[in-house]
Amino acid sequence: MPDIPAAPVILGNEPGSFPHSVLAERHPAIIRQVREAFPYEPRQRRALDALLANCTEGEIEPLPADAHDRERWETWDMDAHAGHSWYDVPWLWSESWFYRRLLDAVGYFGPGPWQGIDPFLPSKRAELDSPATDGELAALDDLAGRPAEEQARALLHGSLWGNRADLGFRLSAEGAEEAAPVPGLVADDSERLWSLLGTAGTGTLCLVADNAGRELVPDLLLVAHLLAQGRIGRAVLHVKPHPYYVSDATPADVVDALRRLTAAGGAAAAYGRGLWTALSEGRLTLRAHPFSCSPLPYERMPDDLRADFAAAAVTLVKGDLNYRRLVGDRYWPPTTPFADVTAHFPGPVAALRTLKSDVITGLTPGTEAALVAAEGQRWRTGGTHALVQVRA
Ligand SMILES: O=P(O)(O)OC[C@H]1O[C@](O)(CO)[C@@H](O)[C@@H]1O
């Protein structure tokens, strides 16, 4: 690990800051949304009320002795944070804790009739079934006639901007972006990524997925294309073992996305069938490792996960939250080299992310200055900029 000076860990205790607004406003809004989405019973409603009070005004209370994952949370710093305000512990930790406690409140971990019912399913399904998704899948028919290289670039673009829930594989979108005053892409190592993926490869691609629906669909399309073109021999798709950060993809969401593709007809269905076959033949594997919902940076990943990533030709890490966990959720100076903050990662790694939180590394001084001149600090959190960063 290079000797880089540690930057301050992001906490949520500064009123007016983005992390503070997530804890003070977004989490209560998520609780309201979940209450309205299901006919939860009185016990669950009382538990949601208690969570609302606890997460905004209370202290972190350890999991009960019989919680199925208590030991795991002990290794994830629960005892060190117990007794503190949610605002005074690392923001990354507080956010993960919120989803863990929310699932408890609605009875997700059971036992009982609500066990395994995803409280975010209605919003995920609505997005997947939206007419916007129809239009985006239909656009694949035009893409199918283009040269493979062009398809690959368009699908990468779709996967990247899909992180904004905006499938970008409509080729027309590419030019629009270049016309913006500050480029949409604040760092673009995509050529290095293509060189890692080669043109004829037997290696494994690990894709650490982020959101379900309109992000997962283009992620799957990209994987399908790379497998079909023989640029990789195998893919491992890492998803979350349980609902998380509202829209994060779980194994059930992968199945929903595949059904959506195969039912769409045209080129989308062909991609869907290819993925279905790849899963049944073991060329595409699903992983839902507990650490994928951990409140810790990837630097602290367990050995089995480390071995997975070490064996990959490249690991694609999708989205803002995974970026925060990859580089460390800290106020890095924006020009801190990406290679330095990802030196802990056990193999070649590429981040594909739209910018939705304060964490950023790997910018050139010129890019940072142009962004600040045009937008102040809004570019960090607005989701209007994106990056492709690679450490080979
Ligand atoms: O879906 P993504 O790209 O991981 O974004 C989730 C994002 O939600 C927030 O945590 C706010 O809750 C972001 O700052 C975070 O990183």
TrEMBL record:
Entries under Pfam families matching the protein: ARMT1-like_dom
Superkingdom field: Bacteria
Keyword Cytoplasm attributed: no
Single GO MF descriptor: metal ion binding
Signal peptide range in chain numbering: none
Keywords (A to Z) from UniProt: Hydrolase, Manganese, Metal-binding
Domain Damage-control phosphatase ARMT1-like metal-binding: 23-368
GO biological process: DNA damage response
Cofactor(s) in the UniProt record: Mn(2+)
Tagged with keyword Isomerase: no
Catalytic activity: beta-D-fructose 6-phosphate = dihydroxyacetone + D-glyceraldehyde 3-phosphate; beta-D-fructose 1-phosphate + H2O = D-fructose + phosphate
Family statement drawn from the similarity comment of this UniProt entry: Belongs to the damage-control phosphatase family. Sugar phosphate phosphatase III subfamily.
PANTHER family: DAMAGE-CONTROL PHOSPHATASE ARMT1 (PTHR12260:SF6)
The protein's name: Damage-control phosphatase ARMT1-like metal-binding domain-containing protein
